[in-house]
Amino acid sequence: MTRAIDTETEDLLAHVDGNVGVIMFNRPERRNALSNAMYGGFDRALMAMTLDADIRVVMVTGAGGAFCAGGDVKSMNESHRTGATRPGRSNNYDDSVAQLRNSQRAISLALHQFPKPVVAALPGAAAGAGLSIALSADIRLAAERAVLVTAFAGVGASGDFGGSWFLTQLVGTAKAKELYFTSPRLTAAEAHGLGMINQVLPDIGFESAALAWCQSLAERAPIATRLMKENLNRAITSDLATALDAEATNMVRAMSTADHREAAAAFVEKRTPIFRGE
């Protein structure tokens, strides 16, 4: 049984399916290109999913066969041609920088720091800022037909939504520069080979398979999973001593939970543990 979460915009839909919160880009006529309304929608959806103890995993996906095409290039071209300001945008340089910074934090930073695992499910193309957002998730699942492309070089832009940071973590500096400078269209299999995609799933039944993958992840101990994400995110920027100290704190915290006691009992009794997030 599913229940809706009000994002206050049709451009971004959200609902809960079992223990998985689903956020869906919903501008299929524009291949789910970003809109100003989406940023507030993400803020509302993620706040609701943070507070909902039943939600243990968040899946971000796209409607109509694409994940997200990134910036709305058609709208950009129209504003350049007519000189009109795009809705929700400013012609002032400082205001534009502030707006983009806030937009990036509302999605990429929020997903990276979200206290529950975030899975990006790519039914099709992820390009430009759309790829950056996919890379901000903890795990990426892609349909066989999916295409990944940095895209910025093709439109004379330098990149946003954290793609340069996330991609460097995944593939290394030299490869990330190649992918940004030359902007090749990567198949799901090629992206998997580079470590950008965790798993490639069949095109047919992709949405159901991706949701089932997330539901399976949601069966894990949620407190331990949250603490794992903290440890792994910290490892990107901290020194070893800091990481070790934080791991010790989180390990003692995890092993003090009822879920740990349940897991230990289930191991001895040779049964599947049932985790309650306690």
Description:
This protein has 278 residues and is of the alpha/beta class. It has two domains: 217 residues, 2-enoyl-CoA Hydratase, Chain A, domain 1; 48 residues, Orthogonal Bundle (Lyase 2-enoyl-coa Hydratase, Chain  A, domain 2). Helices cover 49% and strands 15% of the residues. Helix 3 runs parallel beside helix 4, helix 5 packs across helix 6 and helix 9 packs antiparallel against helix 10.
At a glance:
This protein folds into two domains: 2-218, 2-enoyl-CoA Hydratase, Chain A, domain 1 (Alpha-Beta Complex), CATH 3.90.226; 222-269, Lyase 2-enoyl-coa Hydratase, Chain  A, domain 2 (Orthogonal Bundle), CATH 1.10.12.10. The protein contains eleven helices and ten strands. It has helices spanning 36-51, 73-82, 93-113, 129-136, 163-171, 173-182, 188-194, 206-218, 222-235, 240-254, 258-269; strands spanning 2-5, 12-17, 20-25, 57-62, 118-122, 126-127, 139-143, 147-149, 186-187, 199-201.
